[in-house]
Specification:
Blueprint lengths: L2 E5 L8 H14 L4 E5 L5 H5 L11 H6 L4 H4 L1 E2 L5 E3 L4 H9 L8 H7 L7 E5 L6 H9 L2 E7 L8 H14 L5 E8 L6 H14 L12 H5 L7 H4 L4 H17 L1
Parallel strand pairs: 1-5, 1-6, 2-4, 2-5, 6-7
Antiparallel strand pairs: 3-4
Helix pairs in contact: 1-12, 6-7
The chain binds adenosine-5'-triphosphate.
The site of adenosine-5'-triphosphate (ATP) has 18 residues, from α1 and α10.
Length: 253
């Protein structure tokens, strides 16, 4: 059985990409077969895993437009992760998709063909609620919502949940919300603790533990083209992601 998780939040810079790269690496350490999918035209996930997005001939854009199969676009990173990469061509593909039939189903249909090769598929959504994020929600079993524990984090969660509700009603009735994952968390401040608790209570969402601590090591990792789990093997941030990954595996049964 493959579990597909969309890591989504239309707010930018909340650690979606970091979460996908780190959980993917942690699940790989647990001997899971993992596919990461970069759905952001900025190609940050692709870049952070050591691949130059502009060097690619075939990307997820071609898969969504139907000119390539997912299996022909997937690359294997230096760390041995399987990645369906992206680059700026995804921006124009997104515009073209708006007028194309089945635009919200295309990712699911493409991933169905390779799903048997993977235990987990992690989808890195762009910071928007457009066709790419809706396509990811349509392909996913579950959504993980990274949030930054600050007051403004509230804004947007309701809008994302409305989109999830619509997707569930019209496209993908099995979609569940795994929960909110506090990132860049400073547990020494009661403010951060209060914000996380308030978000969980307001939206009746599970809060995933442990929260991911704020650490400069995350910002450094992409410069090496490696996940933090490889550049800082014993760091508390890496360990938090490892614990989340272990809990995901346990819950999958
Ligand atoms: N726990 C953390 N502590 C400190 N910095 C972090 C942490 N997690 C992520 N960062 C840094 O925060 C920035 C934003 O992270 P990231 O790119 O993962 O967010 P994102 O939600 O994917 O962004 P976008 O919405 O633009 O795609 C990056 O510079 C990243 O290195």
């Amino acid at each position: 059985m493959t579990t597909t998780i969309a890591v989504a939040n239309q707010k930018g810079g909340v650690a979606k990409t970091t979460t996908v790269a780190s959980l993917g690496t942690a699940l790989g350490e647990l001997k899971q077969r993992v596919l990461l999918v970069d759905l952001d035209p900025q190609g940050s996930l692709t870049f952070s895993l050591g691949i130059d997005p502009e060097d690619l001939d075939v990307t997820v854009a071609d898969v969504l437009l139907g000119t390539s199969l997912a299996e022909d676009a997937i690359v294997i990173t230096d760390d041995g992760l399987h990645l369906l990469p992206s680059n700026l061509s995804l921006g124009s593909a997104e515009e073209q998709l708006v007028g194309r039939t089945g635009r919200e189903q295309r990712l699911r249909v493409a991933l169905d063909k390779v799903a048997a090769d993977y235990d987990w598929i992690l989808l890195d959504c762009p910071p928007a609620l457009g066709v790419l994020t809706v396509g990811a929600l349509s392909a996913a079993d579950s959504v993980l919502i990274p949030i930054q524990a600050e007051t403004l984090a509230h804004r947007g969660v309701g809008q994302l949940l409305d989109t999830i509700h619509d997707v569930r009603q019209f496209i993908n009735s099995k979609l569940t919300v795994m929960g909110v994952l506090p990132t860049m968390y400073d547990g020494r401040t009661t403010h951060a603790q209060n914000v996380v608790r308030a978000i969980g209570e307001t939206y009746e969402l599970p809060v995933i533990t442990p929260p991911i601590p704020r650490t400069i090591r995350f910002a450094e990792a992409p410069a090496y083209g490696r996940s933090i789990l490889d550049t800082a093997t014993t760091h508390k941030g890496a360990d938090a992601y490892r614990q989340v990954a272990a809990a995901m595996l346990a819950a999958q049964g």
